[in-house]
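retry 2 of 3: previous attempt timed out while embedding adenosine-5'-diphosphate. Reduced batch size to 1 and resubmitted. Inputs unchanged:
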Amino acid sequence: MTIAIYPGSFDPITNGHLDIATRSAKLFDKLIIGVYDVPGKRLLFTTAERIEMARQAVIGLPSVEVEPFAGLTVSFAKKVKAQVIVRGLRMSADFEKEFDMAMMNKRLFPELELVCLMSSLEYQFLSSSLLKEAANLGGNIDDLVPKHVAVALKNKIRR
Ligand code: ADP
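retry 2 succeeded.
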């Protein structure tokens, strides 16, 4: 059984993340979305909120689970017995960052493989940070996130 983890901040989960999760769910027996639970990281949503939004977003994907994790990604992979890390690659800045992280992870846990899926064309320029910025300035983000995430974003920003 091949288990993969898909780690990230997911602040909040977007259709770009979901595209990667849906496509990797077809490649592995089980996919665990690992939501960073990092105190101090400047995020808009709490860990509980990010987990809840991600769980609701993958309700239609039975082999996908959502778990919080703190500490090293490789330790999380070991804990859940994953053989693979999944990451999404957008055209611009992702490659260098992923390459450095992959080199470090390989040193820490050589048996763990990294699988990067290229972002679909329509989500190439979608990031949680840009999304939050657009929402904050009153932009329409409804096509970029699941409906419940759009509602949560609007509520959070209104406060
Ligand atoms: P992190 O803080 O680890 O970058 P993110 O939640 O921003 O967490 O992203 C998690 C993963 O999803 C990363 O591999 C990132 O490159 C990927 N990702 C984010 N947005 C997209 C997108 N629009 N299309 C494809 N992959 C994406």
